[in-house]
Amino acid sequence: MPYPFRFALALVVVGGGAAIARATGADLAAASLLLLVAVVATSLLGLPVGLFSAAVAFVTLNWFFTPPRGSFRIDSGDDFAALVVFVLSAAIVGTVVHLLDRARRDAQRRADETHLRLDLTNRLVEGADLEAALPDIASSLRRLFELTTCRMQVGAIDVTSGTPVPGDAAHVHIAAGPLVVDAEARRTLAPADRDLLEALVAGVGTAIDRLRFETEAREATVAAEVGATRAAFLSGVSHNLRTPLAAVKAAASTLLAPDAQLTPDDREELLHMIRDESERLERLVRNTLALSRIKGGVMQVRLEEVDVSELVGIALRRVAPLATHHHLMASVPEDLPPVRVDSLLIEHVFLNLLENALRFAPPGSEILVTANQDADGDLVVKVVDHGPGVSVADRTRIFDDFTTGGARGEGGGSGLGLGIVRSLVGAHGGTAYVEDTPGGGATFVCTFPQERP
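The structure corresponding to this sequence follows.
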C-alpha cells in the first residue's frame, strides 16, 4: 500500500479513537489509553506511520482532552507530563510493534523462500513436466516479491502470472541459462530482494538444465538399448534361419544333381529332411511374428470361456507329426471347469512348450501334459519331459529371447519359444517357470489366475 494511503488510514484510526473517547466522556487518562491502542495498530503499517500517529494523537489529546480544551495551551504541569509520557510511550511501543511485525514478515518470507527452493526446484529435479511447473514457479515468485507480473520463458514455453498495473513500474530482467524472467513491480526492488530473486531464478535455471540433460541422456540410453535389441533380434533370427535354409538347400541340390547316385531310402531321407527343416522354418517365422507383436505392444488378449482339455488335444494333434519317436500323453480331469483365457494365445503357449520338450526329450521317452486347479482355483498346466533338464542357474535366463540353457542348447532351438510363453502367460496375469522332473528332466509350469488382474 502506498504511504499516502497509509498516512490517511492512520488519521482515520486516530480520529476514530478520539471520537469514541469524546462520545463516552472519557478523561485524559482514558483517552490516552484508547489513542495508544490506535497508535499501536497503525504501527503495523510501518514505523513512519506509527510515529506520525503518535504525533497526531499527542496533538489530539492536547486539543480535546487537556484543559483548557480547544487550545494548545497547557495550564497544569501534570497534564504536560502526562502528554510527554504518552508520546514517548506511544513512540516506543509503536517502534517495538513495528520491529516485531517486520521480524514476523522476514521470518515468513524466509519460510516462503525455503519452500520455493525445496518444492519448485525439486519438482524439476524429480522430472516434473516443465510446462506444468513454470506457472506455479511464476506465481510463487510474484507473491514472494510482490510483483505485478512475472513472465518466464524457456525455449518455446512462455508463461505469465499476474496482470500489468497502469502507471510507472520497475522492470526486472534476469537470464539464467535457458530461463529468461521478465517481471514488473510497483516499486524498485531493494538490492537484497534483487539478489534473492536472481539466486532463485538461477536455481530454477540450473534445475531446468539438469532436467534437459537427464532427458537427453535417457533418450540416448533408450536409443542405444533399442539399437542393441534390434541388432540382437536380427542377429538371432538370421542365425536361426541360416541352419534350416542351408539344410533345405543342400538336400534339394542333392536331389536335383544329375549325377547323384541315390537309393530310394536316400531320397526319402532327404525329403524327410526338407520337410522337417521346412517345419522348423515355419515355427521360427511364427514365433518371430508373435514376438514382434508382443514387443510392439499390439498383442490383444480376448478372454473367453474355453475347455482346457480341448486346447490340450488340439496342441497334441498339431505336434503329432513331430513326435514319431516320442509318446505324447495328456492328463486332464473331466470335471475341470472352463477357464477364461484367449484360446489362440494359450494354444500357442502349449505348442511352444510341446515343441521345446520334443527337441530335448530322448527318443522313446514320454512327454506328459497335465492340467489341474490349485487350492486357490487357479489353472496349473504342466509339460513334463525326461530330457537333460535345466540347471538352477539357467531357470530364469532360459525364458529370455534367443536363449537356451545348458545342455538343452544342443537341441537346435531358436530360443524364442520360451520367451513367447512367458510373455503370453504374463499377459493373462499368470506366471511361467521350470522345475525338475522326478527321475530327471524338466517340467515347465504355467499358472493362470481365476480372476485376471
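The longest strand covers residues 147-154.
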